[in-house]
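REQUEST FORM: STRUCTURE PREDICTION
Request ID: SP-0412
Submitted by: Lab K.M.
Chain count: 1
Length (residues): 334
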Amino acid sequence: MPLSRQSVEPWLGLSTTVTLPTRASHGARVSPEVLAAVLYATCRYLLRAILAGVDGSKGDIIDAVLLTAIMDADIGHLDEIATLGWRYATYADGPPDGFRRPISVRLLSDRLGLPYETTRRRVDGLIAMGRCVRTEHGVHARLIDEPHHHAGSQVNYAAVRTLLRDLSSRVPEVYWPKADASDLGAGEPPLRLVNRRCAAFAVDTLARIADMAGGYDEALVYMGMVEATGRGAAGDAWPTLRTSSLARSLSQPIPSVRRRLHTLRTRGLITAQGASFDARPAPQAEAVVSRLAVANLKRLQVLFAQLQSLDVGLGHERVQRPEDCVAQPAGYVG
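STATUS: Completed
RESULT:
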């Protein structure tokens, strides 16, 4: 078990040492370096997953987050019973509409921290595009079996596996579940099951980052900055990123990214170096970034503990479904 470090780590300005209360970590105390590395890996994962979702939402991050939250409300409950979760684990085995649980616009607004009218207007737009269906109990996602959605599911699944590899290699001080090769077979990968569990993590994490950054568009730019400049940070030597380079990497318009960077700088979340920026926060913002990093680490442990409890092995390309699971006819994507 590593000893905690008392000095302030320059990477992201984190100075918090946290004790993990999880059984697997046996009360391990982790240092600011660990928190920073985990936050960097999380931003890298979320960027991959979000940009895939944004691509399917006509370039709008808020619509992508709304769809993810609606899907989580719809079918996230399936995994409360392991056999049911595995029954609808692969892409070919989509859950029937009877399993869906619609969510109200008010609950969506509260969960995502968005104004009610903004949420209502956005949901109406998603319904008009055929992405959601309104019922007397709320809205649920209507995801059609299309090649671009299958590709998006594969992108997210691959990103989760990359995240676990990143965490295992960069942060060995913290316990991360490992797949048991003896339990792995040559079946189809559990795309739906993994994506359902990750949806809750992604929505809750993004809501926290958006609250800190001033909005979901700002959160996207902040994560891009952390991923790009935190990767090569060493002590006081920080790589910087110009607005045009960041906009290109995020596939966002330069004027929009420039405005988001101004907001992030005003909030003290990034540092300007001439015409470029890096992800070091100002002293007054260090505490809020530290709290975000601590909460992020604990949520990640919960996510992988859930996957482990469902016998999901992410260390292999293919995962064998439990023998007691019965294959179901293909349904809607969800």
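NOTES: The longest strand covers residues 132-135.
Reviewed by: T.R.
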